[in-house]
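Q: I'm teaching a short session on how sequence maps to structure, and I want students to see two examples side by side rather than one. Could you give me a first protein with its sequence written out and its structure tokens following it? Keep the formatting plain so it prints cleanly on a handout.
A: Of course. Example one:
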Amino acid sequence: MLRYLTIPVTAFQQNCSLLWDDASLQAAVIDPGGDLDRILAAVAERGLALQQIWLTHAHIDHAGGTGELAERLALPIVGPHPGDQFWIDGLPQQSQMFGFPPARAFTPTRWLDDGDTVTLGEHTLNVRHCPGHTPGHVVFHVPQIQRAFVGDVLFAGSIGRTDFPQGNHQQLLDSIVQRLWPMGDETVFIPGHGPESSFGRERRSNPYVGGT
């Protein structure tokens, strides 16, 4: 069984998530944007063996702690899609611009593309490329527990911003309709900020994509 814990980090209250296999206690951390000591305390408290870093995209609040964490624990960095390379390269500048602790650029151990999979313990998760908020944004779908970690693509009652460099509003809407909705109305998603919701609820009531 896969379990997860969401830990809001940074001044932006970004939803960093720990995901682990409760049989082996092997764990991955999704979007370690900062507050690494809090994240590692949660890992230690549960006796987890942190083995991977997974990234949905490379904005500072999602990726700011990645380089340091990877170096500190010799962890592989998995994702995002190569379209976000310029965001990764700009992490030091992003950290200065938004008042974050110094962040370092890095090269992911493995880039991800649409249709790829990642593994954790005995479990396989699906990767969907969902551009629009950033060109290299990916989503991690866990069909075994009907969960999806969607970063800043979709929120409860809202959608991701597209006014950043290489953002694209229509592309974001297409990503949601074509790649998230087919995961099923019952799937609960963990957004990059704010509370969880389900795809069915957002299809019915989200003012930006409801009824699609």
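Q: Perfect. Now a second example for contrast.
A: Example two:
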Amino acid sequence: MLLGGGNSLGQALIRLGAEEDIGFLAPRPPEQGWDAASLTQLLDDTRPDAVVNLAYYFDWFQADEVSDARLSAQERGVERLAELCQHHGIVLLQPSSYRVFDGSRATAYSEKDEPIPLSERGQAIWRMEQSVRAACPKHVLLRFGWLLDDSREGSLGRFLSRAEQADEICLADDRRGNPTPVDDAARVLLAVIKQLDCAAPLWGTYHYGGHEATTPLALGQALLSEARGLHPLKVQDITPQAHAARPDAADEPQNAVLACKKILHTFGIKPRAWRAALPTLLDRYYRHG
């Protein structure tokens, strides 16, 4: 079962699954979104073997900001989902984020490093991780790097909108992370699902990010270079700016690079180069527009 089949990562997972004859039951969320009560009803009625929880994908990975009230409700939803999965013997696959780290390390973060989230969102995601571990032993928590999708309101969409309208864009040249296009994230999720389906008890926390850590400045330049052939842009170039001078410096880790050795050694999943996925991603973004 896939919660959140309507968002960009959910759609990418459904597309990839279809290529391998893997179907997902993707129920339509209630009007107010999935909460503890609606999740209880859903799992009592359906009893799937596994749940991929992308119900809060946009708020956790793409939204500019999220209210504390929304995050609190989503935390309760995840906690209830974990309890239900344990009760019914369902495997839970729950994406998480680089945001659980504070970015003070000089080197890439491994799964053994202690989370110290900076932002309210990071703290909520970290509490969600803890509730999943406590309630549902048969889980996989998958922390992703900087996720890029084709949604208009997501981080990529906001950047491209500014590039169409602004003369100048400033991006940090001393902040680092792993850009991770949603098609690549979906590939990783599908590979994990297939191996868990073989009854391999590979529970725990894993990291995944696209190959080649980079800066927002270099990522932005690569995106502009690709986008110029598809759409008129006003901005000419990107101005380097220090991480500390950025408006989101208090919330975004300066170092968000994730080490991906554990997922390679456990599942055999190799990081793919994010640059190679940009043409497809941007083509889909502009075609949807």
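Q: What should students look for in example two?
A: Point them to this: The CA atoms of residues 83 and 135 lie 5 Å apart. Also worth mentioning: The chain is about 45% helix and 15% strand.
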